[in-house]
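Teaching assistant here, posting this on the class forum so everyone can see the example we discussed in section. The complex has two components, and the goal was to see what a joint structure prediction looks like when all of them are supplied at once.
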Amino acid sequence: MQALNGLAEAYEAARRDRGFRRRYLRLLAEYSGRPTPLCRADNLGRAWGGSAVYLKREDLNHTGSHKINNCLGQALLAKERGRSRVIAETGAGQHGVAAAAACALMGLSCTVYMGRLDMGRQAVNVRKMLLMGAEVRCVAQGSETLKDAINEAMRDWAESHDTTHYMIGSVVGPHPYPAMVRDFQSVIGFETRRQFLAREGRLPSAVVACVGGGSNSMGMFAAFLRRPRVRLVGVEAYGRGPAPGDNAATLRLGSPGVLHGAYTYLLHDAWGQILETHSVSAGLDYPGVGPEHSFLKDSGRVEYACASDEEALDAFGELASREGIIPALESAHALAFGRRAALEAGPAGAIVISLSGRGDKDMDIAGAACAAGRKEA
Amino acid sequence: MSASIRDMAAGIKKRGGKALVPYFMGLWPDAASFHGLVLGSVRAGADAVEIGVPFSDPVADGPLIQAAGREALSKGAAPPDVFRETARIACRTDAPVVLMTYANPVLRMGADRFFAAAAQSGASGVIVPDAPLEESDGLRGPAAAAGIELIPMICRGAPESRIEAAAARAGAFLYLVALKGVTGPREGWEPDVAAEVATARRFSAVPVYAGFGISSAGQAASAASQADGAVVGSALIGAYRSGGPEAVFGLIRAMRRAIDGDFQCAFQGGEKCGCS
């Protein structure tokens, strides 16, 4: 608790510090290349019933996803607090790569915990982290994915918090992380709102983003929560279906509980044991969800929907072939729902989809899935 | 029938003794061996026992307790099974029983039901390491209603205000985490909790037991001499894996001798006499 209280105070001070904000915004602009474009995807729009479809191109960030927004903020905070070492967990490896990059930039030592299963399916990201000087520790426990990597990082931090900053990659975990990560990611939503208004002279009718832990969606929604006419939809991974262990649809299929220091919806059994999850995308493979998403579900402000592995893979291929953009499989879940929303809305619709990351890392998985699909057919 | 942890802790402190509390994972390695370990450890000198209700994601635990919990879960050990076996143990010993688990199994059952079932099983205290002081008010009422002591934990290096708050909420004993980090043996490490114990004693007469990292007789004696007792968990699981139940009881007997010997020496001259 001392470590968390100390971090909460430091973050609160940094948030109010204009100098800190200026240094953070400069890093976003010069290092990550922000603002990222809001692209109108007319080929998709025509195929999807004539809606105006826009993509927020977080995939064009340095390191290939929105994760860098948060890592630059937390690395800056760690540096200014005099921490010399950073630890992080990663699922798909996107947060691990962004953490390794931010630490290399700022001269911080970096250790990334990653589940063994994820290290296998995201080997390229492991190599990138190593190249940028990070140490990658293999977690061979539980489901060997993101949840277990968080457990190990928390155990490390319990021992090391005097010298080490724990850089959580999503809006999960204990306070202040859900609020801090949301704030660092809210640049996605505020840029989108400004860009959309400039382009269309109105607000979008719907904004769609994928939800694993929920950082890109929370950052996107943050700018629209007080605009009640904008429909907000978070899309979870329905995996292979509704059976326990076959999906990561926490808000849809879970119930409230405590994991990793947060009271939030969880996928757990009748006795509170956390279930293993499945999603074709490693970044959505988490049995919890950010606590603010749980609040937004219960308050009814945000709708939470699902997309299956198959729907995500279809959307992955469709965006590539129609627009020449290869999305991360995580983002492909948002695209899959975006298609449904566009078809429902028709020509009056103006839909923004958060393209949270690029899909280079997923080429092998998508290729294998296509090959398997062909065999079945 | 198990005595109450509060009475036992107060009684030992009153007669100037020091407590030794071993931890075992519920139903590990199997139900019969678990019974033998708990009852045998009381015969070997334990004053009370702590029984783990396994949880899938025990972030406060190191590799030894994690593995024991995983094995118990893989055999289907759910809270009702642990309650049932605890009840069988509690009617065969005077030693108090304290359960240790994490917040989610408690909340999933419902705190009222969980604490009532714990009390029914003969346990008199519950420890929930991931429900810190600031967040445990919701558990305190249901625990009290069931007659269960919710045992607060604080870490070495905690600020005075937190130690005061924890001591004020402690009924049976205050659990002092003797190191920064998770459970498990540490080589070449000496418990150093005198400052936190002194702070707690300024605010409360409640006994302070130190746990986490205590794996040798010498560490147990050192922790108990600074505090009012020592809690030992991972080391016993390690001992069982390397030498079976006899190794567990041997370690408990050695800790008992070291704690009592040290305590008598302290009376005689204030110096440690190396009796560990």
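For the discussion questions: Residues 63 and 184 of chain B are 7 Å apart (CA to CA). Residues 234-269 of chain B form the longest helix (36 residues). Think about how each of these relates to the inputs above.
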